[in-house]
Amino acid sequence: MSDIYSKYETVIGLEVHAQLLTDSKLFCSDSAAFGGAPNTHISAISLAHPGTLPRMNRKAAEYAIKLGLACHCEIEKDNYFARKNYFYPDLPKGYQVSQHTAPICKGGYVPVVTDAGSRQIQLNRIHLEEDAGKLLHDQDPANSYVDYNRAGVPLVEIVSEPDMHTSDEAYAYLTELRRLVRYLGVCDGNMEEGSMRCDANISVRIKGTTTLGTKVEVKNMNSIRNVKRAIDNEVKRQIDLLEASGTLIQETRSFDAATGSSFSLRSKEEANDYRYFPEPDLAPFHLTDEFIAAIRATLPALPEELIRKYTTAYGLSEYDARVICDDKGTADYFESLTAVTTQYKAAANWMLGPVKSWLNEHSADISRFPVTPAALAALIHLTDSGKVSFSIASSRILPEMITATTEDPLAIATRLNLLQDTNADNISPIIDEVLAKYPDKVAAFRGGKKGLMSLFVGEVMKLSKGKADPRLTNELLAEKLKG
């Protein structure tokens, strides 16, 4: 069976809509906030009443350019909006204002990493447009309702080339894109709330051929995981149909997450004629080099750059660097932490160990972590200097710092009598007690079982209540075990 599927190559292109985090809508001052009672974030302009005129939201253009620069796009300086004409109940104008032949961002790429390696997913364009409203089908058994709160909210549509060939690549691309918009602060990337939405265009062809197969569009996927599931399901469906001598039709399908399968919504044998023409109520707008340069200057350090810095300058593994950079808040905290300590690997270990455990336990993000980077750096220094062990620092001192955030970690260690004992006269009798307790293990160690050293160290640490200095303990044990 696997041989059948291995004959084919999958070709995937994704269209991602991201709602921009502006306060107001794209062409009027109505609130663009998520939520609110139905039809409360609207006005005569949102509803396209006669005599109203739209006005461009400057911040939306800035956000689109910001994303384009981060995606290595060419920025179009001469822009205009067009009317995309189609009728749907949640589209109050009877058309959508969008960009047509001159998208604000052209080309570009998004870097991805999968088990197969790293590559750049090529983009076709990123353009600005307004969102439609929302149809509600579950409020009444006989009627559908319309909520226009979302109508006119600014979107960017990020259109990739048909440049992905596995669901893993699509998953990695969407994950990276969501991380990117969050780093830039242009979109919250919340697919569950619909502020980031993805349609997948999927086709298959025999390996070695260059002609694209019949394209099927799959919609209504509310998570990155479901996009992956939908692609896998659709690829199998298409190959099974072709192998059974069936005919694929160009259509739009909807994905049912409960069953993991899709169903047909409508056929698309002919391209829709949207009868685009320039929006007469909005003047074209020109972007100057100075305006674009000013936006470029506001770009934060992005994941690509930070991962490269952490792996080369800080000596972290690529895995650790990527986990730290997965969330901008975590990366910002780590940047502040490494600004006050040069113990980069220790800092990463603390971030990925005790700090991450606390965040998971409290279902919190890093903004709620009560220990400042400077205080955590002091705790790292305390362990690095050998005054306390990592185990004591993480299990005893850090919890105290979390509840008493103004107390210095050294003061906490002193108050709780946790400072490590570096006096050989104090540690030596404890070692003698441990060795006397395990004469058979001592004989085995002297007979060549050197791995037993960890047992002896552990017992010494237990009897000393974690206060014996590990380095000195190892030295004293090695000396006593020679005899």
Structure explained in plain terms:
- This protein is an alpha+beta fold and 483 residues long.
- Helix content is 39%, strand content 19%.
- It has 16 helices and 17 strands.
- The protein has helices at 2-6, 58-70, 167-184, 224-243, 289-296, 303-312, 318-325, 328-338, 344-361, 373-384, 390-403, 409-415, 424-437, 439-446, 453-463, 470-480; strands at 8-19, 74-75, 78-79, 82-85, 95-98, 105-106, 109-114, 117-130, 134-136, 145-147, 154-160, 196-206, 216-221, 251-256, 261-267, 277-278, 285-286.
- The strands form 4 sheets. Strands 1, 2, 6, 7, 8, 11, 12, 13, 14 and 15 form a 10-stranded mixed sheet that branches. Strands 5-4-16 form a 3-stranded antiparallel sheet, with no helix packed on it.
- The longest helix is centred in the middle third of the chain and has 20 residues, at 224-243.
What Rg do the Cα atoms give? 30 Å
Mean pLDDT: 92
Residues in helices, as a percent range: 25-40%
Poorly predicted regions: none
Assess the beta-strand content as a share of residues: 15-25%
The tally of helices reads: 16
Judged by helices, strands and strand pairing, the structural class is alpha+beta
Q: Describe the main β-sheet briefly.
A: 10 strands, mixed
Principal-axes geometry comes out as elongated
Beta-strand segment tally: 17
Distance between the termini: 66 Å
List the helices and strands and how they pair.
Elements: H1 2-6, E1 8-19, H2 58-70, E2 74-75, E3 78-79, E4 82-85, E5 95-98, E6 105-106, E7 109-114, E8 117-130, E9 134-136, E10 145-147, E11 154-160, H3 167-184, E12 196-206, E13 216-221, H4 224-243, E14 251-256, E15 261-267, E16 277-278, E17 285-286, H5 289-296, H6 303-312, H7 318-325, H8 328-338, H9 344-361, H10 373-384, H11 390-403, H12 409-415, H13 424-437, H14 439-446, H15 453-463, H16 470-480
Parallel strand pairs: 13-14
Antiparallel strand pairs: 1-11, 1-12, 2-6, 3-17, 4-5, 4-16, 6-8, 7-8, 8-11, 9-10, 12-13, 14-15
Helix pairs in contact: 3-4, 6-7, 8-9, 8-10, 10-11, 13-15, 13-16, 15-16
